[in-house]
Design goal:
single chain; alpha+beta; Nucleotidyltransferase, domain 5; six-stranded mixed beta sheet; 10 helices
């Protein structure tokens, strides 16, 4: 500082040229003129070192963009930074929005840190799963499940039934039901079929009312699906990862609609309906390259029939009608099939002497040994 002040002072006397002074103070003429110019602009304090920070940056975030990002966070408080940026870029494509990491950093500076649950220690071996249908188009596979019951503010239980399209992730139904039973679920599926058409396949777990412990795991609900020409597909018992996308959706649903739960069933259903609209039409989905599910979903061409189609079996099969308990009469004796097939026709195909394969529509239910009068496994023949 003293050297700079002395150079400027000597130059202002007019007794020395800038070249002579620069040689004396061992600086370049450019530097000497710089200090003189700064002295004229701001006096002695202007000779202090200035910050080397650039005056501007091509990647700097303007206050307007930051405010819009924070406003969007306030509107969708549970979304990640990546989803916020994707949603903003879709709504305002002409604006240069920051990348995900920059948006995350900006939000972290302006928000209180969020508590995170510790992850599992160590590594887990990937589960072995059986082949399931890959949804390559809308309505190829619908997935359904119950999220799990929880108690409402008035003390009653709510059982959320969810139904999604596996290809587009479009949420078809999200209903809070009083019980996980056929009378409660069948009307909801009927409404979904009436509104969105009939899918090719429905995938579920092995719990009620989707399956049972009877033959082929049939339930009243799955029998009705089969009568509509829907292929029933179930994940392996104890393997929820086979329906991982639906399970992840349930985590989001629980976080955004049930913490805390509403006081009444009607109020909770309003939360489900609002969440479904946001999830389908606003929320970007990473598996869809940031698109909203509604942009990819189209209703099925096959519509819900007014009456169930008749059941036809090959002429050389034995056809028997089950009573209200799921029991058929075969060669003069009662044979218990499954209660799920109450009042339905089943087909019996003789595949060997006194050995029968029992069918319902195109689904084999099991093998029956007429001599021993019991159901058998093929490897026991």
């Amino acid at each position: 500082m003293d050297e700079r002040a002395a150079l400027v002072s000597e130059y202002l006397t007019g007794l020395w040229t800038m070249g002579e002074l620069c040689e004396r103070f061992a600086v370049s003429p450019k530097t000497g003129h710089k200090w003189v110019r700064r002295y004229h602009e701001g006096g002695r304090p202007a000779l202090l070192d200035r910050s080397r920070r650039p005056h501007g940056h091509p990647a700097a975030i303007s206050d307007r963009i930051l405010r819009r990002l924070l406003d969007t966070r306030a509107r969708f408080p549970h979304w990640s930074a990546g989803k916020l940026v994707t949603w903003l870029a879709r709504r305002y494509p002409r604006t240069a929005w920051p990348c995900r990491s920059t948006a995350y950093t900006l939000l972290a500076r302006t928000e209180a840190p969020r508590a995170r649950r510790p992850g599992p220690r160590g590594t887990r071996a990937p589960a072995t799963v059986r082949a399931l249908t890959e949804p390559l188009s809308a309505n190829a596979v619908w997935t359904t499940d119950f999220k799990g019951k929880f108690r409402l503010g008035d003390g009653s239980y709510c059982h959320p039934l969810t139904l999604r399209d596996g290809f587009s992730r479009f949420v078809l139904r999200c209903d809070g039901l009083p019980a996980e039973s056929y009378p409660c679920t069948q009307p909801r599926f009927a409404r979904a079929f009436a509104e969105f058409g009939v899918p090719e396949c429905i995938r579920s777990d092995n719990g009620t009312p989707f399956a049972s412990t009877g033959l082929a795991g049939l339930s009243r609900l799955s029998v009705w699906w089969m009568q509509l020409g829907i292929r029933v597909e179930r994940i392996a018992p104890g393997c929820p990862e086979q329906n991982g996308s639906h399970e992840q959706f349930h985590r989001v649903l629980k976080r955004e609609t049930t913490r805390p739960p509403a006081r009444t069933a009607a109020a909770q259903q309003r939360r489900f309906d609002a969440f479904r609209r946001e999830y389908n039409h606003e929320r970007p989905h990473d598996a869809l390259a940031g698109a909203a599910p509604a942009s990819l979903y189209r209703p099925a061409e096959r519509r819900l029939p007014r009456t169930l189609p008749p059941i036809d079996y090959p002429q050389h099969w034995e056809v028997r009608g089950a009573d209200s308990s799921g029991v058929i009469t075969f060669h003069g004796r009662p044979l218990n099939v499954t209660r799920a097939l109450a009042n339905q026709d089943v087909g019996l195909e003789e595949i060997d002497d006194a050995l029968w394969r029992v069918w319902f529509l195109a689904t084999p239910l099991g093998h029956f040994d007429e001599r021993r009068w019991r159901w058998v496994r093929p490897d026991n023949w």
